[in-house]
Amino acid sequence: DKGQYRHYMQKEIFEQPVAIMNTLDGRIKDGRVNIDAIAPNAAEILSKVEHVQIVACGTSYNAGMVARYWFEAIAGVSCDVEIASEFRYRKFVTRPNSLLITLSQSGETADTLAALRLAKESGYMSAMTICNVASSSLVRESDFAFMTRAGVEIGVASTKAFTTQLTCMLLLNAAIGRLKGNLTDEQEHHIIQSLQRLPAQIESALVFDKQIEKLSEDFAEKHHTLFLGRGEYYPIAMESALKLKEISYIHAEAYAAGELKHGPLALIDSEMPVVVVAPENDLLEKVKSNIEEVRARGGQLYVFADSDAGFTDADNFKTIVLPKVDEVTAPIFYTVPLQLLSYHIALIKGTDVDQPRNLAKAVTVE
Ligand code: M6R
Fold first, then answer.
1. In what residue span(s) does the SIS domain sit (predicted)?
2. Can you tell me which atom of ligand 1 is nearest the CA of 243?
3. What pLDDT, in 10s, does the model give residues 148-191?
4. Which atom of ligand 1 lies nearest, measured to the CA of 138?
5. Is 60 close to ligand 1, i.e. is its CB under 6 Å away?
6. What is the ipTM of this complex?
7. Which among 106, 339, 355 is the best mutation to test ligand 1's pocket, defined by most ligand atoms within 8 Å of the CB?
8. What is the reported pTM?
9. What is the DSSP string of 112-156?
């Protein structure tokens, strides 16, 4: 039942504060991750992990791409991420003490399931799934499952599954970081506190709905959109581009902002909207130079930032200035206004938001 909402996608976007609260429920104890709540034998396995291989498709793959930054920065273990349909059809080398993590909303994605089955024969230390459906094949066939608890997701465009996958990933990173001695108590407390603050912060992002709806009018007549970000915001840009193309049928591409000069700058003209995710952080100055590169070529800029980033509206330059949030959870936070942007663009275009043409919710055949 959609209740007060026009579409399931809209409902699911607005459910994210509650979904994240549910994902955290019982998984935090005394300001730290409750590792036993991940799985009864999780601590033993996680303390041995030396490498993580993530395998997934679509939006779940984009969540894996964000998590890669966290595994190397927080947990202190090397991490690779691969699209399941590629992983399953190539020869790969299994690293010692490597944990395979499949990410999936449905738990039934054919390529991801095939990748899991292959990995189980290929010497992985253990296979974990981060999944939203308890009765699914991935949950049944994995050594252990860390459930996202997003609740039923009906819209074909995945929203709350993505943000709860990232919530699970941060908990997992805090757990591995502690078990491997790569994270201080203080750092772990900080991650946990940031996660606990996140639901209320996402509520505050949802308040920008009307402002984002207004912004979306600029995109409806466009044929292309470019999304840019650096660091964890590069995969957030990827996820935003996927959302836009999937539900509005506008061609959208994401680039790591530092790649502009290596090709995509040639695309920039007054017909090319460029969305930049630019919160205040160590990379902001770099992102600002990239913004200048676009501005100098007459690109239309739409910058999603926080009050500390110091952007204001100007000619061909519109900003959505969000509240400042903790850096560690900010990629999850920024996902939400960008989901709203795609949603509103699709509404103007009049597409079938919940059931985009040619797509299925669960891709159970390859
Ligand atoms: O159920 P899964 O998370 O395994 O599904 C993977 C993709 O099919 C899925 O994320 C797809 O890309 C979505 N429609 C994106 O919104």
1. 42-182, 215-356
2. 16
3. 999 999 999 999 999 999 999 999 999 999 999 999 999 999 99
4. 4
5. yes
6. 0.99
7. 106
8. 0.98
9. HHHHHHHHHTTT-SEEEEEES-TTSHHHHHSSEEEE-------SS
